[in-house]
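User: Batch of two.

Assistant: Item 1 of 2:
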Amino acid sequence: MLQGSFYTYSTTNTEGQFCVTFNAQHPIFKAHFPGKPVVPGVCLMQICKELAELHCGKKLNIKTARNIKFLQMLSPNTHPTVQFSLNAERSENDAQIAIRAVVSLGELTFSKLQITLHPQIK
């Protein structure tokens, strides 16, 4: 779980919209990359998963990830706060949830992700 240490979030008035603020002092950025930190793509995927859990109200696991596009470098120093927009489509039996996510700031789009999740089995 990255929420609370790597990033914090707040919701907006629109469903599926999250304002995410990165912790530029997090140890991940000392390795990725020293002096010029970049948010790792795998962390963006994990953040999408965690925000999808909040959005859907249940614990989820990533089943598939496809059409992952990193369009711009995302640095916590130059863009400490970004917008995550999630669009969720649930299957008929709620066995899986397809998420389309866009990570952006105004007109600047950093990433687009399509991931399929399924509820965790207790």
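Item 2 of 2:
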Amino acid sequence: MKASKLFAGLALAAALVAALPSCEKPDIPQPKPIDVPDDPDTPSDKNLATEPAACDNKVVAHRGGSRETGMPDNSRAALRYSMSLKCYAMECDIYWTKDDNVIIAHAKDTYYVNGLRPWEHTVEEIRKAGKLSNGEEIPTLEEFLDIVQVEGNCTKLCIDIKNLDGNLTAYPINAVKRSCEIIKERKAEKFCEFICTGNETVAKAAANYKAAYGIPVGWMANKAPSSHKAIGFSWANLSAASYMTPYGDGVRTIDEFKNAGMEISVFNIDKESGDGNAVYSDEAVNYYVSRYDDLRFICTNYPSWLLKKLQ
């Protein structure tokens, strides 16, 4: 009897101790790899294609070929023009906004869209501050995806992660992060590719998102293939005028990357001057046309012209 009372007392004491608040320090969260959620359902109110149609060319329309047409760059009209030509992709520029959205635009003087710095304002505020010259509102990434994610379309988005000067690397990193989330929500991974500023801090973040979300990224850094590979890139996207030779002012070559087992694309191959990153002499154009098969793609301000040259 005494033993049973002793055991009962011990059990009661254990229960009381267990009920007391813990005095232990809580676990401190540790950094962890990017956690990508499971595929969400595609929005039920939209019949979205998840894979582009086959494309028979490797021409990317820089800002939608706005220089060729006079349409506003980064506009819906320019995107539809690129699609009408059945270009491989349209190059477009992204910025993260204060309300955690992504707009398609090319900032003036590095920072300003409609006179506002996007990361300090919401999409609504940016739109209220002005419109494109054709009357369009500044588009969002989701609205661009609405246009391209249709059955039979072969034109992708080649999304340029824009650099910002000074200590503002958090904002382009936010832009690629939020873009990846939106793309995944839409199941649009096969409709999108990124090209990334040469800024190494932004590039390292973009490489992490590339690995996590499976969306290709080309680095725009004037560096040897070994430097690209060290960060995690297998594709370089380089200025023909500034970084490449022959016919440019640089030292990088197509064969340098090809021999290193990397893909390379170039920008811009044009029919006339006007873009500081472009080559446009007959010799330069003919050279890049002759190396077409060795390139991932060729970006140009004159997509209709280049498509005809390639024919």
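The radius of gyration is 25 Å.
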